[in-house]
């Protein structure tokens, strides 16, 4: 197999790994009824004029299965953190007691579970589209190499390898979605 073909295959696999990493990060943000500090990832608070992740201005801990505690390092950040969580619209209401903020996770209704699973499925579909797009680009590169002198057999082998990698990553997306569905549907 030529060096250029090997590079295309490696780049394809790297791109697909990134698509899976993105899916994993997005699935963590979809709450499944359990309290998780990762829910607050991506929420920034106004810290002296600059947007800063909550984790950098407060200690975030899980008190029990349904409760997250946010203890700011500076007491004057309580309102700013509370406001940021409200604006993020993550489906919870923060409780400010003057010293810390608590977030209580309400139990999920059947309807809400289905809604969240639809959102997770949408993220899975985005990942599959990204993976297929990476496959298409790789096959186009292989066809270009074939025009530039790569043998037909080597090109076919390369395309087969790309398809095998694609199938592997698509099944990985399915496994992640199945695990998330199981997590959401358990009461």
What proportion of the residues form beta strands (DSSP E)?
5-15%
Provide the succession of SSEs.
HEEEEHEEHH
Within CATH, the superfamily of the largest domain carries the name Ribosome-recycling factor
CATH class of the largest domain: Mainly Alpha
> How helix-rich are the residues, as a percent range?
55-70%
First-last Cα distance: 52 Å
Spatial strand arrangement across the major sheet: 3-4-6-5
Structural class: alpha+beta
Q: Count all strands and give the number.
A: 6
- The structural domain count equals 2
Report on the structure:
It is a single chain. With 187 residues, this protein is an alpha+beta fold. It folds into two domains: 3-29 and 109-185, Orthogonal Bundle (Topoisomerase I, Chain A, domain 4), CATH 1.10.132; 37-104, Gyrase A, domain 2. The chain is built from four helices and six strands, in the order αββββαββαα. It has helices at 3-29, 78-88, 110-147, 152-185, and strands spanning 44-47, 50-53, 58-64, 67-72, 94-96, 101-104. A four-stranded antiparallel β-sheet has the order 3-4-6-5, covered by helices on one side. A two-stranded antiparallel sheet has the order 1-2. A hairpin with a 4-residue loop joins β5 (94-96) and β6.
């Amino acid at each position: 197999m030529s060096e250029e073909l090997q590079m295309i295959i490696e780049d394809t696999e790297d791109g697909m790994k990134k698509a899976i990493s993105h899916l994993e990060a997005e699935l963590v943000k979809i709450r499944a009824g359990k309290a998780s500090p990762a829910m607050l990832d991506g929420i920034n608070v106004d810290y002296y004029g600059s947007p800063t992740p909550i984790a950098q201005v407060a200690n975030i801990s899980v008190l029990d299965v349904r409760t997250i505690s946010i203890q700011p390092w500076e007491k004057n950040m309580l309102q700013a953190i509370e406001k940021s969580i409200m604006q993020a619209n993550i489906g919870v209401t923060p409780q400010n007691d003057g010293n810390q903020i608590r977030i209580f996770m309400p139990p999920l209704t059947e309807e809400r579970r289905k809604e969240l699973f639809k959102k997770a499925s949408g993220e899975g579909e985005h990942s599959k589209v990204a993976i297929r797009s990476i496959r298409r680009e790789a096959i186009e590169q292989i066809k270009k190499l074939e025009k530039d002198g790569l043998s037909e057999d080597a090109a076919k082998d390369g395309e087969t390898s790309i398809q095998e990698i694609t199938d592997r990553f698509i099944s990985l997306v399915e496994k992640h979605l199945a695990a998330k569905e199981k997590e959401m549907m358990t009461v």
